[in-house]
Amino acid sequence: MSADAERTVESVERDVLVDIRGLKVHFPIKKGFIFDRTVGHVYAVDGVDLQIRRGETYGLVGESGCGKSTLGRALLQLEPLTEGEVFFDGVDLASLRGEALRRQRQHMQMVFQDPLGSLDPRQTVEQLLLEGMQAHDLAKGSAAKERLVELLAAVGLPRTALGKYPHEFSGGQRQRIGIARALSVDPQLIVADEPVSALDVSVQAQVINLMEDLQQEFGLTYLLIAHDLAVVRHISDRIGVMYLGALAEEAEADDLYAMPLHPYTRALLSAVPVPDPLVEDQREQILLAGDLPSPANPPSGCRFHTRCPWRQETRCDDERPQLRLVQIDGVPESHRVACHWAEQIQSGDLQPHAADTSLTDPTDVQSDDGEASSLFANVVGIPKP
Ligand SMILES: Nc1ncnc2c1ncn2[C@@H]1O[C@H](COP(=O)(O)OP(=O)(O)OP(=O)(O)O)[C@@H](O)[C@H]1O
Ligand code: SF4
Ligand SMILES: [Mg+2]
Q: Distance between CA 383 and CA 59 in Å, rounded?
């Protein structure tokens, strides 16, 4: 390797704040009253490599149940890793225990979808914000009070909010409190798990804009988890598309929207409405057949083969595709896709066909509350059987 190339590799490595390697999180499925027998596993995250650079927003999207929250929680060491490693700022988090892990947690905070559920209703805003600061010895006495007021100002709330309880605020304001609480310990990384999904559309944009401003002000790095591609696009530098526990595609946000390469991403994007009616009439619509298979019994080979309109007789059913660079003109190295046939699909040499719905076992449907299917049906327009 030339000296220049070595320097580039070094600077990219220095630039990486979160380095997830070969991550697997499997949950045992237990049965039996007396003897707890493990009868299977939910393969919630099943082989993910993902790097997040300092100061960037990494958007992670995918259907309900594909493993987004589990990945975020595993990154924060809130779920035990079945396999793989998570490095934060070069530190192997799994090697930390007790006090060392607690101190490291100061740098990695989480913002949740449901601010009311994640804020203790018996605590005032002041108590909520002080909790973390005190736990990490960040400010005491008058300095703490000053910091509280600064935090509130940063998230656009008046100082009178300090004496109030979470239920006295609107949904958007509560999320501002949730963000202030995450910021209170001066973190480097915030994992925001569907931070605006529970909010009205008008408020969603305000909270996303606030997050962008705070990122600039405090030099934050975000892992933003969402199922809404529109939300992720606006704020993300890079986007990872997840399907059944693994990344199907990863690219700079603009590249992903300009040239989605994985059939799943193409389907997701083909269903996002375009405001121009002429474009809307002419654009590619990809309908996916079948339901999301269960992560307890994922399909062999390419996990998407049961629903893929481009599925081929060779490789797709029995060879799991890795996230890889592609040989397509104009596609940069930052754009990676887990599909054996990405080049041929992009060139048009392979054409879509009706997927074989018999490949999806209807008893394997992941969600019986209808959420997974209907969420995706809204996005992709799946014909219901
Ligand atoms: N503690 C657990 N024990 C067993 N299974 C779990 C556990 N947590 C998550 N799962 C399962 O792991 C899979 C992935 O769940 P996860 O919550 O990570 O998905 P998600 O992509 O965040 O979905 P959503 O968009 O609905 O939040 C699901 O099938 C879920 O039921
Ligand atoms: S590997 Fe095969 S089944 Fe998987 S996305 Fe590509 S074409 Fe579809
Ligand atoms: Mg989730």
A: 28
Alpha-carbon separation of residue 46 from 67, 71, 226, 254 (angstroms): 9, 10, 19, 27
Ranges assigned E (strand) in the chain: 16-31, 37-53, 57-61, 83-88, 91-92, 108-111, 189-193, 221-226, 238-243, 246-252, 324-325, 336-337
Ligand 1 centroid to 70 CA: how many Å?
A: 6
354/86 Cα distance (integer angstroms): 40
pLDDT band at 114 (very low <50, low <70, confident <90, very high): confident
Q: Are 228 and 63 in contact (CB under 8 A)?
A: no
Indicate which atom in ligand 1 lies nearest the CA of residue 73: 18
Q: Are 245 and 50 in contact (CB under 8 A)?
A: no
Looking at residue 201, its pLDDT comes to 87
Question: Comparing 147 with 3, which gets the higher pLDDT?
Answer: 147
Question: Which residues are near ligand 2 (CB < 6 Å)?
Answer: 262-263, 302, 304-305, 308, 310-312, 316, 321, 339-341
pLDDT surpassing 80 at residue 144: yes
Q: Rounded to whole angstroms, how far apart are CA atoms 148 and 324?
A: 46
The residue whose CA is least distant from atom 4 of ligand 2 is: 302
Residue pair 242/60 in contact by the 8 Å Cβ criterion: yes
Q: Which residues contact 350 (CB under 8 A, 6 or more apart)?
A: 310, 312, 341, 344
For ligand 1, atom 12, name the residue with the nearest CA.
44
Six token digits for residue 250: 């990863």
| E strand or H helix at 264 | helix 263-270
d(CA 318, CA 251): 26
**Residue 19 Cα, ligand 1 centroid: separation in angstroms?**
22
> Amino acid identity of 150?
E
Of the candidates 90, 97, 69, 179, which has an alpha carbon nearest to the alpha carbon of residue 132? Answer: 179
pTM for the complete prediction? 0.89
Residue 202 · residue 36 · CB < 8 Å = no
Chain centre to alpha carbon of residue 276: 29
27 lines ligand 1 (CB under 6 A): yes
